[in-house]
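Long-time lurker. I teach an intro course on protein structure, and each term I like to show students one example going from raw sequence to a predicted 3D structure in token notation. This year I'd like something fresh instead of my usual example. Would anyone be willing to generate the tokens for the chain below so I can use it in lecture? Attribution to the forum is fine with me.
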Amino acid sequence: MAAAPKKDAGNADANAGSKKKKLFLIIGLAVALIAISVGGTVVALKMLSPAPAGGAAEEEHAKEATLAPAIYFEMTPNFTINFNVNGRQRYLQAAITLLYRDPELQSLLTLHMPAIRNGLVMLLSSKNFDELQTEEGKETLRAEALEIIRSQLQKEREALIASGSGDKVSSANVEQVLFTNFVMQ
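-- Reply from a regular --
Happy to contribute to a lecture. Here you go:
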């Protein structure tokens, strides 16, 4: 009687091993099918994606633009603005650095820095002190400062072109306005 249970135990072990093999086989096939599906989708998307509109010349220009090193222009002295908040004097001190990539832009920035600083002082002093304490307020300020700088540079470029002395005016622009110091009290 003792021998019979051993044969059943052997069959049970063999059945369990066979079931594990089938399970691993099914899981392996499922993983392989998923991999083939993802690979096929990637290949199909690459084949069906439209070609760049500008052609090789535009691609080369884009590569050159992305490969140019960043140049940082620190606007000194720092900006200091006072606010009257509920009868109390409050202050903002901001250090601003500009990021651009064309070295020719530095001479234009230096030449027109008084007009650019004036625009930024007017922008900073028009802001609400409480609004500038939020991340959204600072981000909005950064975007508006960038727009002021770009519009001032564009206005000066147009004036140079209109006067006839701007035949080689760089069309490069400031990419970012960075607050390297922003203290409110």
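Some talking points for your students: Residues 92 and 184 are 5 Å apart (CA to CA). The mean pLDDT is 82.
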